[in-house]
TrEMBL record:
Residues 19-101 form the VOC domain. It holds the Pfam family Glyoxalase. It comes from Guillardia theta (strain CCMP2712). This is VOC domain-containing protein. The lineage of its organism: Eukaryota, Cryptophyceae, Pyrenomonadales, Geminigeraceae, Guillardia. It comes from the Eukaryota.
Length: 101
């Protein structure tokens, strides 16, 4: 059995965080992104605001993905936040999903 993680602070937050509501992802190819996340169990949800440039998906656990069409792709499909060795830009670098196999 895993031991509980060690807390790095004793400061109590001013609110109780109860879950991860959604993750916004800028994508270069909306159809490919919908297909990819669909294979991970996400289903497209119509929220009345969907367009060709904005889609929402949700999985059975309630996690939402808000997909946005990126204005431009990167040369050689490089990730500007992680793939450049000389400079590191601020931003959310990735999400990690647990799957059964």
């Amino acid at each position: 059995m895993m031991s509980a993680p060690k807390l790095l602070t004793t400061v109590r937050p001013p609110f109780k965080l109860i879950g991860y509501h959604h993750l916004g992802v800028a994508v270069s190819q909306m159809p490919a992104a919908l297909d990819f996340y669909g294979k991970l169990g996400f289903k497209e949800v119509e929220d009345g605001r969907s367009t060709e440039e904005r889609r929402m998906m949700k999985n059975a656990g309630g996690l939402q993905l808000h997909l946005f069409k990126a204005d431009a792709g990167h040369e050689n499909n490089q990730n500007i936040l992680m793939d450049f060795k000389d400079v590191k830009y601020p931003g959310h670098t990735h999400a990690s999903f647990l799957v059964p196999s």
